[in-house]
Amino acid sequence: MSLPAIATVIGSGTMGPGIAATLARAGTQVRVYDISDEALARAEKSTAFAASVLDQIGGDSAPGGSVSFSSDIAVALDGTEFVIEAVPEKLELKKSVLAQIEGLVGADVIIATNTSGIPITTMGEALGTPGRFIGMHWSNPPHLIPMIEVIPGEATDAAVTDRLVEIVKAFGYHPVIENEIAGFVENRVLYAILRECVALVQEGIVTQEALDTCVKWGIGYKLAVVGPMRLLDMAGLDIYQSVSSYLNKELDASTETPSVITESIAAGRLGFKSGGGMYDYAEGDVDAKRADIVAGLVAVRKALSATTPV
Ligand SMILES: NC(=O)c1ccc[n+]([C@@H]2O[C@H](COP(=O)([O-])OP(=O)(O)OC[C@H]3O[C@@H](n4cnc5c(N)ncnc54)[C@H](O)[C@@H]3O)[C@@H](O)[C@H]2O)c1
Ligand SMILES: Cc1ncc(C=O)c(C(=O)O)c1O
């Protein structure tokens, strides 16, 4: 199982640095490109931080890996074997970036996208050679969550899917191959959970602190160890039938983004990145919370690696 010798990450915001650090630790020379010099400067720091977190997890660090940063896309793509696009989730922007990439790389270079759920076939329309294009959906934070959704579009060559699975396994992550569907699998499940959680808080059924406690120490902890399909076996399918027969029709089924979210965004409250969102954060609180989350994820990942994969 071999990794690409040289890979390029296009877009160095929330996701790019952790992706770069993960591939570099496995031995790949990673080039990171962004249109924003400020984003590149921030990414240098967050890539170094992600690398230090990977040291905490332990495991092998392959020789030869490195990360370099460039504001010149031609430099970042020169000689590359594998490209991961991680620019904002806007279809037209992604299409134009993909076309730009295609014009600068060799015909055999795989182009992957980290889209959270835009159909791969739709994005692939931007390319003259869509057979080389595939979804590679990392979960945030990408250097800590060792699962990647692999989503071929209608035009993706089977050999490209096979090669991506090989690459994912080579850096020690679990590849999950899926048929194409909007939102893919992980975000369909996550957004079903988030829709119900936000509705319960917005309707005043529960405070957000109590909701977070319930999910973290209840289903969150449990689902980290037992997947939903096996949880059904653990609970009993008859129990699921009884409860779902009266509960499913009560669950939130709204199709719009809830007002508690749109009003927060309108007020400039986006979460950690703006210093406030669902919660308020005083000076230093965001860094402390991020450190707490990283420590928890490192500990849980170590514990889970001693259990069966499914
Ligand atoms: N944030 C998450 O939790 C998460 C998780 C999984 C997947 N994703 C997906 O990954 C992708 C990136 O998300 P993110 O959260 O890192 O976004 P982000 O907004 O944090 O970062 C995007 C970066 O792309 C750069 N950029 C914009 N236009 C560009 C261009 N033309 N060329 C190069 N760089 C450009 C921006 O300057 C920015 O630094 C999106 O498709 C998103 O849906 C995000
Ligand atoms: C809220 C939210 N939306 C999308 C994604 C990934 O595409 C994530 C994540 O990876 O955690 C997320 O939390």
TrEMBL record:
Transmembrane segments: none annotated. Residues 8-179 form the 3-hydroxyacyl-CoA dehydrogenase NAD binding domain. Residues 183-281 form the 3-hydroxyacyl-CoA dehydrogenase C-terminal domain. NAD(+) binds at G11, S12, G13, T14, M15, G16, D34, E89, K94, S116, N140, K273. Gene3D superfamilies: N-(1-d-carboxylethyl)-l-norvaline Dehydrogenase, domain 2 (1.10.1040.10), NAD(P)-binding Rossmann-like Domain (3.40.50.720). Signal peptide: none annotated. One of its GO terms (molecular function) is oxidoreductase activity, acting on the CH-OH group of donors, NAD or NADP as acceptor. Keywords: NAD, Oxidoreductase. It comes from the Bacteria. Pathway: Lipid metabolism; butanoate metabolism. The record marks H137 as: Important for catalytic activity. GO terms for biological process: fatty acid metabolic process. The keyword Oxidoreductase applies. Belongs to the 3-hydroxyacyl-CoA dehydrogenase family. This is 3-hydroxyacyl-CoA dehydrogenase family protein. It comes from Schumannella soli.
